[in-house]
Amino acid sequence: MKTLGSGSLVSVLKVVLDIVWYLAWGLLAFAALVLIATGTLLAMDWLGYSPNFLTDLFQAIRDFGGAYPILIAHIIAFLVVNDRLRRIFSTLVAGDPFVPENAGHLRMIAIAIAVFQVLRYLTQGAVAMVMTLLHADAPVVGGVEINKLGSFDLGAWFAVLALLVLAEVFREGARMRQEQKLTI
């Protein structure tokens, strides 16, 4: 199976990225709704109103609602990276990988990962402060407390640096290709 062009492995991966793109938007909408419900429930608690109906659902939202700001940050960063990968894969399907735009897409992916890492640290700190102020236990996701997830991710920062280098390689490759076209 060929790797570039129409009917290639890249075109299959592009379809997978397109499907995941729409699934991520659906997940983002769901997470946003749960976050709004969590805020509403906090406001209702502060006002002293506790509805008797749907108490199990409300309790589940209270228990896991603190994890949703972090989930939303993950999804937004994922959507940015996915969108830029889809754009890169479009040029690969067209059989033209060394276009100047791909360097910008790789640079934007690196920036998105870096911004996500910083936002992750800030969001986890904010959730921890709110949970402390509310005298609540930290939300547990996958058996791990949210506060325990804030460690420094060396792999992500290495990926940022590697993507910035690859962006420059693509930029230089596109420049050399353009020069070659002009000399012929």
UniProtKB/TrEMBL annotation:
- Say which domain of life the source belongs to: Bacteria
Membrane-spanning segments: 20-44, 64-81, 109-134, 154-171
Keywords of the record, alphabetical order, are: Membrane, Transmembrane, Transmembrane helix
Q: From the Swiss-Prot or TrEMBL record, give the protein name.
A: DUF2975 family protein
Task: Give the species this sequence originates from.
Answer: Maricaulis maris (strain MCS10)
